[in-house]
């Protein structure tokens, strides 16, 4: 019997800073248009979403500043720009919804994760609202408090055994 897979396969690249800098209110899944050597490099884990962002131009969604290192065994005569704008594939209604939501003050489209599903590269993008510095401190305090609670529960369980 085949093993049931998680909702997403193992992430190939993740933007961990996004949850620190933004309140993610809604997420969308988009396909990615990549060249053959880019997908090979991506599967090798040679991608970075650190400074990436998404924009909508002429009714199409593009991912900017995502760095995918060139594939070393690939065609050396066809070098591509590692940070070129890559097209994201979504339904027109989803793009229009995302466009309307992102036009509101303080909202932006943030790439969260790149992974493969059924052999195709997918990008999880989120609609994010920027956090202020005091919001970041509040989130860190909540995270620390939750960690302390979990630690105390583990200690209590060890003592009761």
Automatic annotation (TrEMBL):
Keyword Cytoplasm included in the entry's annotation: yes
InterPro entries for this protein: SmpB, SsrA-bd_prot, SsrA-bd_prot_CS
SUPFAM superfamilies: Small protein B (SmpB)
Top-rank taxon: Bacteria
Protein's GO biological process: trans-translation; trans-translation-dependent protein tagging
GO molecular function annotation: RNA binding
Keywords of the record: Cytoplasm, RNA-binding
One GO cellular component, as annotated: cytosol
Pfam family, one: SmpB
Region annotation Disordered: where it falls in the sequence: 134-161
Cellular location(s): Cytoplasm
Family, per entry: Belongs to the SmpB family.
Matching PANTHER family: SSRA-BINDING PROTEIN (PTHR30308:SF2), TMRNA-BINDING COMPONENT OF TRANS-TRANSLATION TAGGING COMPLEX (PTHR30308)
Function: Required for rescue of stalled ribosomes mediated by trans-translation. Binds to transfer-messenger RNA (tmRNA), required for stable association of tmRNA with ribosomes. tmRNA and SmpB together mimic tRNA shape, replacing the anticodon stem-loop with SmpB. tmRNA is encoded by the ssrA gene; the 2 termini fold to resemble tRNA(Ala) and it encodes a 'tag peptide', a short internal open reading frame. During trans-translation Ala-aminoacylated tmRNA acts like a tRNA, entering the A-site of stalled ribosomes, displacing the stalled mRNA.
Protein name per Swiss-Prot or TrEMBL: SsrA-binding protein
Provenance organism: Cohnella nanjingensis
Protein's gene: smpB
